[in-house]
Specification:
Length: about 775
């Protein structure tokens, strides 16, 4: 008997591994094992782990429809829309009648602005299921994305007609009515949502935001408080209430709400980070830094705290600490894309744009849909002077992440710098869509219309900016700009003063107020205004800079300007514009050595600012020190290879020092592309053509230089006429040559070109 039992035991021991081996080799079993594991991870919000399991499931069975669909859902949670699109497409390909997947795909295509493809899906769904209210809702979303808000409202009403008890439809209708400027109808729809579902905290939050946008702050506060009461497990209503208090200038109340959230939700990251974010939104960066530092100590495993802290440190220029924390994140996960992007930001700021670009290209290769990586990559290319590629990356960032506000702002700044007011209008409108309760977008759009002399249109946006945020200086500054453009200087002055009353540290407001006096040649009053504001805010570097500029440009008070710029630079060693102007004042005083020293000190604090190297080159050029001038311009171009000023000045030095004319020509052509309206740049290019013997090209460029000088604020000078006269002479146009050379001598008979001009005239007469 004992022997028989032993045999049975051996049989089981042998058979069990065989059974398990057979099961593990069965694809149906393996795929189900991965799928169920993924589901468990998904239900516990471990989406990265869930994605790995679902990917394993579809590797085992590429036709496993349910796994493809669930993988799409997981990618959505991970904010990877490209992956979700691909998996939803595969789901539908395998199971064409999966209407739920088609609805999700259509909504995702709408979010990605792939409207033509979305229309194909919606039309298919409407044909197959014309009485499905959810499909009419998707059609409404699509019509809204196409700008057909009226039609979108009608489709949402169709959804409600098919299912009048679905409170989410009323919520969507309310948002559409807000967009269509139907405030009374929108309020009624919001109230209907709450009547159908009194516990709908999200509806109360949106209604509160609606009230806030209409300056009904008491009603907004009531709704936010109700949202807190009906949803005590979420910190989101408290975030909304804190933002309302901040918009009202009630910083203490906002901090109180955030502190209470931190106490009530000790394990909720969004809640305990709220106080730091309140400090950030109120502009108190030092307190925000201290709070994040404390949070990082208390919650060392919270990667979001660490990442927020890193971003703030980068903004404040504290790269050593940012890099240390970033290294901690990368040590835990060397492939953490956020951390790799932060490291790249630090590299760009420290002059290592090429290294950053290489790393970011790898990040994007691994995750093509990562909008933030494209945005930072654009900054890297901008640092190298490749604006065309930078803009391409920023536009990719916005395409992938339409809500990426920093990228939209950057494109707005690019449009502003180019003077492209149409583009600025478009970008400002996008900012308004993303932040309808912020004055920023309205103020920028007003600026675009002011520059296009559309004053009445601009005033609507200006007043909206002031209405939304009466405590902010944004709207008042733009009101000042509007009235200034209309030459209503008294009204402009009152608006700028209101901005200063709102924000005593606003450099834009003080610049505008001083400008109203400068425009009327009241220079002493402008200076007095600056001094009054400096008395109120004695540590504002920008205010001393504005004072110095007026003393320098308008009063020609070089000593006073020098003192003001010195104080500005002392208060903020990274204020590169103040240090640049300080060096320019010193040069104007004839203190070239001092100006060179100032540039040298400034470069220590701002090593990646090409303007200092350009000014250094100009200073050395004034001494005819061609070697040092060349070195300075080359350093500027190493920072920004396409910098037109450095390119032009280096080409000019090469002309005067007898260097390679082919290289000089290439530099001058780069400068001409970058500064097409500069007479000096056109002159440099024309004179290089002359030196190379391309006289007809020289005449074309030099004539253009003279035209640009006459059409601009730059007066034409004897050198332009001399150069053009010499080019005409070599081209055989004797009469025109004589006219230009005689004009040059008449303008300045003692110029450095005078002897050559007289010699050429004598040859023309002989």
């Amino acid at each position: 008997m004992r022997f028989r039992c032993s045999l049975q035991f051996v049989s089981c021991a042998v058979l069990l591994p065989l059974i398990f081996s057979a099961c593990s080799g069965n694809p149906q079993v393996r795929r189900q094992k991965y799928f169920l594991s993924g589901q468990r991870y998904f239900e516990n919000a471990k989406y990265a782990e869930a994605a790995i399991e679902f990917v394993n499931a579809v590797k085992v069975d590429p036709n496993y429809t349910q796994a493809h669909h669930q993988l799409a859902e997981t990618y959505l949670r991970l904010q990877k829309p490209e992956g979700a699109l691909q998996e939803l497409g595969r789901t539908i390909q395998l199971q064409p009648d999966d209407y739920e997947a088609r609805v999700e795909l259509a909504n995702l295509l709408i979010l990605g602005h792939n409207l033509a493809e979305a229309r194909e899906q919606v039309d298919f769904l409407l044909k197959q299921r014309p009485n499905d209210p959810s499909i009419h809702s998707v059609d409404s979303n699509l019509l809204a994305a196409q700008g057909e808000v009226g039609a979108a409202i009608e489709e949402m009403r169709a959804s409600i007609a098919l299912d009048s008890g679905h409170w989410q439809f009323y919520l969507s209708l309310a948002l559409l009515q807000v967009r269509d400027s139907q405030p009374d109808a929108a309020e009624a729809s919001f109230q209907k949502v709450i009547a159908l579902n009194p516990a709908a905290a999200q509806a109360r939050l949106l209604l509160g935001s609606f009230y806030q946008s209409r300056s009904r702050n008491q009603d907004a506060e009531r709704e936010f408080q109700e949202a807190i009461a009906v949803d005590q497990k979420s910190p989101e209503p408290r975030v909304a209430l804190a933002r309302l208090y901040l918009a009202e200038g009630k910083r203490a109340e906002a901090e109180g709400v955030a502190n209470l959230a931190k106490h009530d939700f000790p394990d909720n990251s969004a809640a305990y980070r709220m106080l730091a974010n309140v400090y950030l939104m109120s502009g108190n960066f030092d307190k925000a830094l201290a709070e994040y530092s404390a949070l990082n100590q208390t919650h060392p495993a919270d990667l979001q705290v660490k990442k927020d802290f890193i971003q703030l440190l980068l903004q404040k220029g504290q790269f050593v600490e940012a890099n240390r924390l970033d290294a901690e994140v990368l040590k835990a996960n060397p492939n953490d894309n956020d951390a790799l992007v932060y490291r790249s930001q630090s590299q760009i700021s420290n002059g290592h744009a090429n290294d950053a670009i290489a790393a970011l290209e790898t990040v994007i290769k691994n995750d093509p849909g990562y909008g933030e990586a494209h945005y930072v990559l654009g900054i890297g290319y901008e640092k190298l002077g490749n604006i065309e590629r930078a803009e391409s990356e920023w536009r990719d960032a916005v395409r992938l992440r339409p809500d990426l506000l920093d990228a939209v702002r950057t494109l707005a700044g690019l449009a502003m710098g180019r003077g492209d007011m149409e583009a600025l209008d478009q970008e400002a409108t996008e900012i308004i869509k993303l932040q309808p309760e912020s004055p920023e977008g309205y103020a920028l759009r007003a600026l675009a219309n002011v520059n296009r002399k559309r004053f009445s249109v601009a005033e609507v946006d200006v007043r909206k900016a002031i209405e939304i945020a009466p405590q902010s200086s944004f709207g008042y500054v733009q009101m000042g700009n509007l009235k200034f453009a209309e030459k209503q200087f008294e009204e402009a002055g009152r608006a700028y003063q209101a901005a200063l009353d709102s924000n005593p540290n606003s450099k834009d407001a003080l610049r505008g107020l001083m400008g109203t006096y400068v425009a009327r040649n009241r220079f002493d009053q402008a200076i007095a205004t600056a001094n009054v504001q400096i008395t109120k805010q004695p540590n504002n570097s920008g205010f001393y800079e504005l004072l110095g500029t007026t003393l320098f440009i308008n009063k020609k008070d070089l000593n006073g300007a020098e003192a003001a710029f010195e104080k500005s630079a002392e208060l903020d060693k990274r204020n590169s514009s103040a240090q640049l102007e300080l060096a320019q004042v010193q040069a104007a005083k004839g203190a070239t050595d001092q100006a060179i020293a100032t540039c040298g000190h400034a470069i220590v604090n701002s090593p990646n600012e090409p303007s200092f190297y350009i000014l250094l080159g100009d200073l050395y050029q004034s001494r005819r020190d061609w070697n040092h001038a060349t070195e300075a311009y080359q350093k500027a171009l190493a920072i920004k290879p396409q910098n037109p000023l450095a390119s032009n000045d280096l080409a000019s030095v090469m002309l005067q020092s007898g260097a390679n004319l082919d290289v000089a020509l290439s530099l001058a052509q780069t400068a001409r592309r970058g500064l097409p309206e500069s007479p000096g740049v056109a002159d440099t290019l024309g004179w290089i053509y002359f030196q190379k013997g391309a006289y007809h090209s020289a005449v074309d460029s030099l004539r253009e230089a003279l035209r640009l000088a006459r059409d601009s604020e730059f007066p034409d000078n004897s050198h332009l006429h001399y150069h053009l006269g010499m080019a005409y002479a070599k081209s055989g146009e004797t009469t025109l040559a004589r006219q230009q050379l005689e004009t040059a001598l008449k303008m300045n008979p003692n110029s450095s070109d005078a002897a050559d001009a007289r010699k050429q005239l004598a040859q023309l007469k002989s």
